[in-house]
Specification:
The protein is an alpha/beta fold. It is built from 18 helices and 23 strands. Helix 1 packs across helix 9 and helix 5 packs across helix 6.
Length: about 525
């Protein structure tokens, strides 16, 4: 019988956006480097069942696992740092737990008990956590939100109780806090961190490890002060200033000795860490004197970079493996109305990316961008929506002026992109799209086959629309070809430009499988094409 997992619970205080996900992923990275089998899970207090219907402008991208779970973007960090494929067990939102409790109550499984937050809701959270931990040496659980949030309280109580259930020798609590810097007095202030730890203690949890984030390196003596006033051993306090690359964070944490503290605390039999490959990743990420290249991303969610997190990380990973210093230029799809707009927007750009998205806003601008790249031989990478808009652009370039997508104009008679069978009427329904891993057959001799180096691949999907098969016979005349399809030939998975240096688009999301130590072939091929662009 396998030994039960040890647990590491990661919470955050003071303010949101501190980097709890990066911290949790970095701890996982260091423990895996020590030969331990590590799993990681995100517990989100949102009342949604999953992240599928969350607004990306506010919440960031929706990451998709291989088994089709729509999750928080932190799972992308987890997969990139651990180089492991996670599943639906690694994402838990309040709505999913509440739904389970309510369904059990309706099915009479509580035998007439009063159903309460404690013990029923907290007990169900613990069941989800313990189920996800099976088969692993260490299970890391990040609690979303900030200590003190009302909606987070059931998760905090659940992990407090779980610590008692499994024994304190089998779990460790890591609390991530923020250290503000006052320029006027040249001081790093610890009071907000102290207050956050006090609040966590008031909820019954005393942190074993404190990770203190700051914009710049903290003043001398801060570590001792945090130890004294937060009741955490000084060796268990890690100061984590901003890094030039997020991939530096595991190495910074390693230098603080926190991984050894956790191994000692949890009595883990760990090997000497092997961080050679990761140090190579960081060396590439921080290398200077590279050739500078600018890539344009034709976007509709312009509020923050989190909306395209995996796309940006995939581009950066490919660039560092091609020895490129990459600059990403945002191009607002809503502001593209003419060729003149595109010429101005793409000035100095070596290639353009059209990423995924939903809704009609900005689609005409994305179509014009794809059309411009196709006609002007500019390297183009289309991702999901980027493929659909490229097909519309090719059709319009060939003279079908009313060619469009059903998403943009459902009443059009020239729907070159249509709703998938079985998806009609589900446009506002969560968890119903084509999600997760599906196989793809690539045509031999195609650009896609050259990029991948193989003809049978598996990629992750998240879409509701597809290429209309009635128009596929016209693709060659439009200047494109369907070089990748589902094994049965029904669904167009990849298109590419005919007689074009690099015009490649996929119905799937290759960004979800890119890794800093192993960039995705499509992104690597795109950056190589941009590198060759004069």
């Amino acid at each position: 019988m396998a030994k039960p997992a040890k647990y590491i619970f990661v919470s955050g205080g003071v303010l949101s956006g501190l980097g709890k996900g990066i911290t949790a992923a970095s701890i996982g990275n260091l423990l895996k480097a020590r030969g331990l089998k590590v799993n990681i899970q995100k517990c989100d207090p949102y009342l949604n069942v999953d992240a599928g219907l969350l607004n990306p402008r506010e919440h960031g991208e929706c990451f998709v696992t291989h088994d089709g779970a729509e999750t928080d973007l932190d799972l992308g960090h987890y997969e990139r740092f651990l180089d492991e494929e996670l599943n639906s067990d690694s994402s838990l939102m309040s709505g999913r737990v509440l739904l389970k409790v309510i369904q059990d109550e309706r099915n009479g499984l509580y035998d007439g008990e009063d159903v309460q937050i404690i013990p029923h809701l907290t007990g169900e959270i613990q069941k989800f956590i313990m189920h996800a931990s099976k088969g692993f040496d260490v299970h890391i659980v990040e609690i979303g939100g900030t200590v003190g949030d009302y909606e987070q309280l059931s998760f905090i109580e659940a992990i407090r109780e779980l610590g008692l259930k499994v024994g304190r020798e089998n779990c460790a609590y890591v609390h991530v806090v923020y250290l503000p810097y006052l320029g006027a007095s040249n001081e790093t202030k610890t009071k907000p961190a102290q207050n956050s730890v006090r609040e966590l203690r008031g909820l019954g949890i005393a942190p074993d490890v404190l990770v203190a984030r700051s914009e710049k390196k903290a003043n001398a003596g801060v570590k001792a002060k945090l130890s004294l006033f937060c009741g955490v051993e000084e060796k268990a306090v890690a100061l984590l200033p901003n890094a030039a690359s997020i991939y530096e964070v595991p190495l910074t944490l390693e230098d603080t000795g926190i991984a050894d503290v956790l191994c000692e605390r949890l009595q883990l039999k760990a090997k000497k860490p092997d961080l050679k490959e990761w140090r190579g990743v960081v060396k590439r990420a921080l290398a200077t004197n590279k050739r500078k290249i600018t890539v344009g991303v034709v976007a509709k969610y312009m509020d923050n970079s989190d909306t395209y997190m995996s796309v940006f990380e995939a581009l950066k990973s490919a660039a560092m493996w091609e020895d490129i210093d990459l600059k990403i230029k945002w191009i607002d799809a809503e502001k593209i109305h003419s060729v003149k707009d595109l010429e101005k927007a793409t000035s100095g750009v070596a290639g353009i990316v059209v990423p995924g998205g939903f809704g009609t806003r900005g689609l005409e601008g994305k179509i014009k961008a794809a059309s411009y790249a196709l006609e002007n031989k500019l390297p183009y990478l289309g991702l999901c929506l980027g493929l659909q808009m490229a097909v519309v652009a090719a059709a319009r370039n060939s003279g079908i002026k009313n060619a469009t997508s059903e998403e943009l104009n459902p009443k059009s008679k020239e729907l070159v992109i249509s709703t998938m069978a079985g998806q009609k009427g589900k446009e506002r329904t969560g968890g119903t799209m084509r999600l997760g891993d599906y196989p793809c057959q690539i045509a031999k001799g195609s650009l896609a086959a050259s990029v991948y180096g193989e003809t049978k691949i598996t990629e992750r999907h998240r879409h509701r629309y597809e290429c209309s098969n009635s128009y596929r016979k016209h693709y060659e005349a439009w200047g494109i070809t369907a070089s990748g399809t589902s094994p049965d030939g029904h669904l167009v998975e990849i298109i590419e430009g005919v007689d074009h240096p690099f015009f490649l688009a996929s119905q799937f999301h290759p960004e979800f499988r890119s890794r800093p130590n192993r960039p995705h072939p499509m992104f690597k091929g795109f950056i190589a094409a941009c590198k060759a662009e004069k």
